[in-house]
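User: structure tokens for DNA-directed DNA polymerase, please.
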Amino acid sequence: MEQRLTPDQIRQLLANERQQFNRLQRQIEQIEQRQRQQRRQRARERQRERQREREIQDQQINALANNIRAEYEMKRLIEKAEYEKRIAELEKNQKKPTRRKPRNKSDEKPLDEFIRVYRFEPMQNVLDFIETQLSNGYAVEITNARVQYFYNKTGDDREEINQYLATFYNISQFQAWFKHLVENYDMNLSVFSGRLKMTPNEITLKHERSKQGMGTNVMCEIVEYKDEYCYIPSDGNCFYKCVQFIYGDKAPSKDEYGAWLFDSRTQRGLMTNSRIGRFNEYFNLNIGLYNTKNRGIEPKSQRGIHHDWLLINYFHTPDYHIGHYCLISNKQRGIALERIKDNYKVVYKNPTLENVKELKMFNTPTNPNKSNVYIFDFETYLNYNQQACPYAVGLLNYNDFSNKCNETPEEIKKLTKILISDRGCDFQTDGDKVDRAEGSQPKVDCVRKMFKYLGTVRSKGIVLIAHNSSRFDSYIPLFCNIKPIKILKTPRGILSITFVNDYASKEVSAFINKDKKKNHKDSKQTITMLCSYQHASMSLKKFCSSMTIREDLRKTSMVHDITEHDYLERMDEWYEYLQFDLISLCACIHKYNEIAYEIGGMTMFDTLTCSSLTLKCWFKDFVRVEDKMKQYLKTEEKTNYIKKVEEIISPLKIEDYFDLSKLEKAKYQTLLRKEFSVHSHTNPYIRRFMRDAVKGGRVFALINKYESDCFQTIVDVVKAHLKTPTSDPCEVISSYLKSDMEEKKKIAIKLKKQLGTVSDCLMNFDGVSLYPSAMSDKDSEYPRAETARVFDISEEKDFLAQFNSQTFRPKTAVLKIMYENPNTVFLQHLPSKDKEKFYNPETKANETKTLNRFRNGKVIDTLCSVDIQEIVRMGGKILKIYSGIVYEKNYDFSPFQNYITNLFEMRKVFKKENNEAGSELVKTLLNSLYGKTVQRDITFTTHLWNLQTLKTEYDDTIKSYEKICDDLYYVEKNKDTQEYVDEEEESPITSLCPAQLGIFILAHSRRIMNNFITSIEGSKTPEIYYGDTDSLYIHKKHWDTLNKNGHVGNNLSQGKNDYGEGGIIFGYFIAPKIKYCLLLKDDFIMEEKKTFKGCANDKINFASFKTLYDGQSIKVNNNAPWKRSFEGGITIPQSGSTISKTYTSTINTFKREKPDKNGVMKPFFKNYFDDKPQHEHSIEYYNSLLFDVDYNCFEFDIDELALEKN
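Assistant: Done. Predicted tokens:
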């Protein structure tokens, strides 16, 4: 009987077999390795033999080289002499040519200078010439070049090195190329022939763009037309529609065409004339493009083929490089072109079902930043060019400070690292890499020392934060010629700038790349600079006060007169000052982060600006439903949010929800995610349409002067006490304001005794947290974007009736309408954007400007339903609805309500606890959220290009560029609108902000302010002297009326007197943002409040406003501004440098009519628009303004109206 093996025995046999197999495998690998080593050894020996042979051959060639060169030079000299002799004979025998009329050089393009080297020239001579031209500021291009290396005297044995096609813009580029060349060849034995092209090293000529045929831009559309001679497709994919018209079912499908359209690196998603040939080859079709200029057919491959229809690219759109592909009959080309010209119609778009339904779920990342954080600060002196040069930099690790923030200042100062520039260092170069005399020490600036120090920190990413880095510190490394890899720049300055740390140590590089995958590039340490000023827009001293930092850790002061020659000797003056700059900022950020994390679980390091921080905190609060449910189980506070959750999961209770399995929870999670989500419109036209409905804050001046009955009495008391020599109120009040507090208190006692109580004065009635009130108000409705539909013209009659009867709300819509403010309205709900002509003394001609003003008459505008109904409330009437978007459903409660209410209650708690830091931060977060929801879409991309790339890509899409260093430019490039969107690369979420929510936030804020205005009949009668976004300057007599209507209080949606028991006893209200108020406080001490847009407060006084009021001009000397550039860094004007501006007295005459005898400035009445297509100011005229640059920008600076043209 055969014996069976047990399982253990089988396993043992298998293990033995496996071990034997592995042993054999290792032996085979060892044999193969020895064979490879032997092959490498033999290859190295053969290489050494060839090298020895080459050296012998080179020695022989060197011996012959001198003879070749001598013979060659002699031959050149003889040929040159013969050539010059022949030219002289020709010139002698030739008649003198007649002089031509000189050309107008301004009409000519700059010519490139060519030097052709037809004969073989010694290569060394050519290299010397190129280097000279580069030094003189020219760019040199080598084309059609042959470089040959000779091995014998006769020249038969020679080697062609390369055919070169290279361009050099600076010496460093040329040296890198030259270094590679001389490593292998002797330039004295090489000759060159070819062409050199020299051009000024400037960017002057734009490349002509390839003509694009996408139909039209986002704001207009084209009407389809067809007959026997031509075909005009509608806008969008016009080329594909023409192909379909010609080939019908044989044409490629839309998906195939879309895939091919995106198969391009440079013209991805765009159809241009240059791609027609490739389209024909790919799809095996015959599409010919008719060139209307030379009457030829393109591309060349189509010229011998018969076509029934020819394609043309017709240019008749506001963007001249964007054409529209049409078809013409090949038999009747002339008639067809005339038909296209007569029937080509461009009309302005309206919302459609397709573009309204283009939606994505809004999402913003809320992940914490885990980089290593340092606080940094530069100290600088001014060089001979008034440029800021860094002589020291301080660093303080944030985590180290957090662990020792309660220690003494002496202990905390030990945590700082101060790095000082070597005297005489060159900020533009690295001192370690410059050739030095033997024995001399390198001179390195503090910026590179900082990078070297951070290069020893074991971290892949390092974040540096400074106060006002966006306007100062971030420019310093650029001034020191350190190249960035990423820059985020806005009108606020450089919000973020990132560098690769080339000074990182080998140990840190090894640490960063320890987990690197095979065949992947090595990662490098990055350093990113951020700005804390974007979170707290105040000086560091005020930031310390706001965050209630310990007195012994606060910023100190010093006189900034350090120079290049004494910064080392005066170290005792600035060293400790720099340390406390670091410590105080770190303490402020630490306090800021503690409160921000308590509010929303985020810190300053996670966002670039305060508005981004509060947006992310709100979004995190709104969409994380389970966190809210857990919070409810702890507090048992049933908010509207929790009530909605209970409604969705009913009959299940919240406490039972967490006992469910994952599979059971999934059903409820889908419902909750659908309810608590935010969507954004993504169609470019719809976003532009929505943008027109964004209306900012209202500012108006309605009565130009106020004087209390008690003002003259106050002037007399002050004059008697101070014994001023004049009775002029302006001089008396100016003397009072200059006196010390003791004198003011003595005068206050006399005033209180003589006046008793003061009731005849103005108050600044200020809305309590206006934008937070609009976001949390129970009467505020907010639409759900996913329920959007197109306005149907059949609804116009019903909508007009509901708007004019003020019953449309709480329904929501965004509509383009015509409305009318009758002449009985004194203060309108919204300003109108009008175009007016102004006389310019410089050009001695009228110029058209665009301005916002509150006027009566007919207006066409795009508004949301809240604003439309408020127009009627303020006395207007809705006349017509043209188009728009209607939302079928709103959020059951404001999506901001829970977040805003929590913050507002938290602020009350902070105030009770005297926590000024928490109160100030919550106030900032409350007022910053709305701004992010109406943020403009970014319509350009940013790049860091070298000069060669910039010259190659320089065309009409380049918005702006700025030089950073020798061969690096910061470029802003306008985005191209694509025909197709690559659906495979599309994400189901978007970071585009939900503009529909921001529109309604702004509208509800105006509605709340209208509650105050209508209570005092301010829209019909001149009761308001001046108004700002959230405040009204009105008489105190209206206090009781406002209080009776429930508008007075410290709660949201209410208002209060911003001056407490005090009031304004005298005021000038010249124009929006130009006002002067003399305030009498409740303790009878006077104080001035002044605003003058474009001027510093210390440059204007009481007399300045009186001069404007009297109809005269004033001249103001403002401090000269700092200049900032990537290449030049910060340039600070000399002390005392000023810029003079002259302001006229007619500032507000463009906004309102001239004041009457009571100082009342009534509104203009102008009927600009008429609903007749042929009328100049019809809806077509309004639509045409959408393409006007002046019309679409924000209202131009008040200086343009105020400045007197000399």
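User: Anything notable?

Assistant: Residues 94-114, 151-155, 1171-1177, 1185-1206 have pLDDT under 50 and may be disordered.
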